[in-house]
TrEMBL record:
<dbReference type="InterPro" id="IPR036890">
    <property type="entry name" value="HATPase_C_sf"/>
</dbReference>
<dbReference type="GO" id="GO:0000155">
    <property type="term" value="F:phosphorelay sensor kinase activity"/>
</dbReference>
<feature type="domain" description="Signal transduction histidine kinase internal region">
    <location>
        <begin position="166"/>
        <end position="243"/>
    </location>
</feature>
<feature type="transmembrane region" description="Helical">
    <location>
        <begin position="42"/>
        <end position="63"/>
    </location>
</feature>
<keyword id="KW-0418">Kinase</keyword>
<dbReference type="InterPro" id="IPR050640">
    <property type="entry name" value="Bact_2-comp_sensor_kinase"/>
</dbReference>
<feature type="transmembrane region" description="Helical">
    <location>
        <begin position="75"/>
        <end position="95"/>
    </location>
</feature>
<dbReference type="InterPro" id="IPR010559">
    <property type="entry name" value="Sig_transdc_His_kin_internal"/>
</dbReference>
<dbReference type="GO" id="GO:0016020">
    <property type="term" value="C:membrane"/>
</dbReference>
<feature type="transmembrane region" description="Helical">
    <location>
        <begin position="122"/>
        <end position="145"/>
    </location>
</feature>
<protein>
    <submittedName>
        <fullName>Histidine kinase</fullName>
    </submittedName>
</protein>
<keyword id="KW-0808">Transferase</keyword>
<feature type="transmembrane region" description="Helical">
    <location>
        <begin position="12"/>
        <end position="30"/>
    </location>
</feature>
<keyword id="KW-0812">Transmembrane</keyword>
<dbReference type="Pfam" id="PF06580">
    <property type="entry name" value="His_kinase"/>
</dbReference>
<keyword id="KW-1133">Transmembrane helix</keyword>
<keyword id="KW-0472">Membrane</keyword>
Length: 357
C-alpha cells in the first residue's frame, strides 16, 4: 500500500517541482540577480504572469488538446492559442498602464534621473508572448506524447489479443489434423498386425497426454518436445515397409530450453505423409540438434504426391501452412526456414533454425 500511494503522488510531485523550478528561474531569480529593489506592483505582476501561465498550461492540456486538437480541429486549436497569446500580452499592457509601471521601474533603477515618458519597449511584450507559447508548446508536447503512449498501449494489447486468438485457432487446426492422420495409420495397422496396433495405441495415448496438457501452455520444455517427436517417429515406423530407408539423428537427451509445443511436428509429419510409397523405393532423413541457443531441424524425403481423394491428400498442407504462420507469430525475426523442393534428386528438404534465447 505505501508503494501504491507513492506512485499516485509522484505525478503531482513532479508538477509541483517543475512549476517551482520554472517560476523561480523566470519570475524570481532573474529579477533578483539585478540587486535592485523593485516595487510591489512589479512582484504582483510577476505572480499574475505565473498564475496565468499555469492556468493556460492546464486549460490547454485538459481541454483544448483533447477536445479540440485530438478532434482534428487543428486550425481552431491554433487560432484559440493565438488569441490566448494576444489576450495574455494585452492584459500585461493594461496592467502596466493602470499602475504606471514604466515610471515605477524608472524610479527603481534610476531614481536620480528625472522620469520622461517613452514609447513602450516591445522587446518585453515579445518575450512575454514567447514564454506564453512555450507553456502552450510544452503542454501540447506532453499531451501528444501521452496520447501516443496510450494509443500504442491499446494497439499492442489488441495485437497481443489478436495473436493469442490466432495461435489458439492455428493450434486447434493442427491438433485435429495430427490425430486424423495418426488414427488413420492405426486403423490400417488393425488389418495387418493387432499387436503393432496395440503398441501404436499405447504410444498415441502418451502423445495425447502431451497434447492435452502441454499445448495449453505457450511454452514447453525442449526435452518434452523431443520425447514427443521420438514417440511420433516410433509410431510412424510401425507402418513402414522395407522399401523405406529411414535415417534418424534424434538425440536421446537434449539441452533444455523453452519452445512452443508441437511446433516441429508438422515438418516431421510431412516426411511420412509425402515421402513414402508402397511400390517405390523411398528415403527419409530427420535430424534434430541444439547448437548453443539455436535449435536446428533438417528433414529430407522423397517426393510422392498423395492422391487427392484420400484423407491424407485432402488434408495436405494444412499443418505445414499453419506451422509457418505460428513461426511468424511466435518467433518474428528469430527463425530461418529454407524449403527446397525443386532439385534433380526429387527430394523435399527443409531446414529450420530457431533462436530460442
Amino acid at each position: 500500500m505505501p508503494e501504491i500511494t507513492i506512485k499516485k503522488r509522484m505525478p503531482l510531485l513532479i508538477h509541483v517541482l517543475g512549476w517551482s523550478l520554472f517560476g523561480s528561474v523566470i519570475f524570481l531569480l532573474t529579477p533578483l540577480s539585478s540587486e535592485v529593489e523593485r516595487p510591489d506592483e512589479f512582484w504582483i505582476k510577476q505572480a499574475l504572469q505565473f498564475i496565468f501561465l499555469v492556468a493556460t498550461f492546464y486549460f490547454n492540456f485538459f481541454y483544448l488538446i483533447p477536445k479540440v486538437l485530438f478532434k482534428n480541429k487543428n486550425y481552431l486549436f491554433l487560432f484559440l492559442n493565438f488569441l490566448g497569446g494576444l489576450a495574455y500580452v494585452g492584459i500585461l499592457i493594461l496592467y502596466d498602464e493602470w499602475f504606471n509601471m514604466q515610471e515605477l521601474m524608472h524610479l527603481a533603477f534610476r531614481p536620480e534621473v528625472p522620469y520622461t515618458p517613452r514609447p513602450r519597449n516591445l522587446y518585453w511584450d515579445i518575450s512575454s508572448l514567447l514564454i506564453f507559447y512555450m507553456s502552450v508548446g510544452i503542454s501540447t508536447s506532453i499531451g501528444a506524447v501521452q496520447k501516443w503512449q496510450s494509443d500504442e498501449k491499446i494497439r499492442l494489447e489488441l495485437q497481443q489479443q489478436q495473436i493469442n486468438s490466432e495461435l489458439s485457432y492455428l493450434k486447434a487446426q493442427i491438433n485435429p489434423h495430427f490425430f486424423f492422420n495418426t488414427l488413420n495409420n492405426i486403423y490400417a495397422l488393425t488389418n495387418i498386425d493387432v499387436e503393432k496396433a496395440k503398441t501404436a495405441l499405447l504410444k498415441l495415448s502418451r502423445m495425447m497426454r502431451y497434447v492435452l496438457y502441454e499445448t495449453e501452455k505457450n511454452q514447453t520444455l525442449l526435452s518434452k518436445e523431443n520425447e514427443f517427436i521420438k514417440d511420433f517417429i516410433e509410431l510412424m515406423k510401425l507402418r513402414l515397409t522395407n522399401k523405406v530407408t529411414l535415417d534418424l539423428h534424434i538425440p536421446e537427451k537434449i539441452e533444455d530450453a523453452e519452445i512452443a509445443p508441437m511446433l516441429l511436428l508438422p515438418f516431421i509429419e510431412n516426411c511420412f505423409k509425402h515421402g513414402i510409397s508402397s511400390q517405390k523405393e523411398s528415403s527419409i532423413l530427420i535430424s534434430l540438434s541444439k547448437e548453443k541457443n539455436y535449435l536446428v531441424l533438417h528433414t529430407e524425403n522423397t517426393i510422392f504426391k498423395s492422391t487427392e481423394n484420400t484423407p491424407e491428400g485432402s488434408a495436405s498442407g494444412i499443418g505445414m501452412t499453419n506451422t509457418v504462420r505460428r513461426l511468424e507469430l511466435l518467433y518474428p525475426g528469430k527463425y530461418k526456414l529454407d524449403i527446397d523442393q525443386e532439385n534433380a534428386e526429387n527430394q523435399f528438404r527443409i531446414t529450420l533454425k530457431i533462436d530460442l534465447s
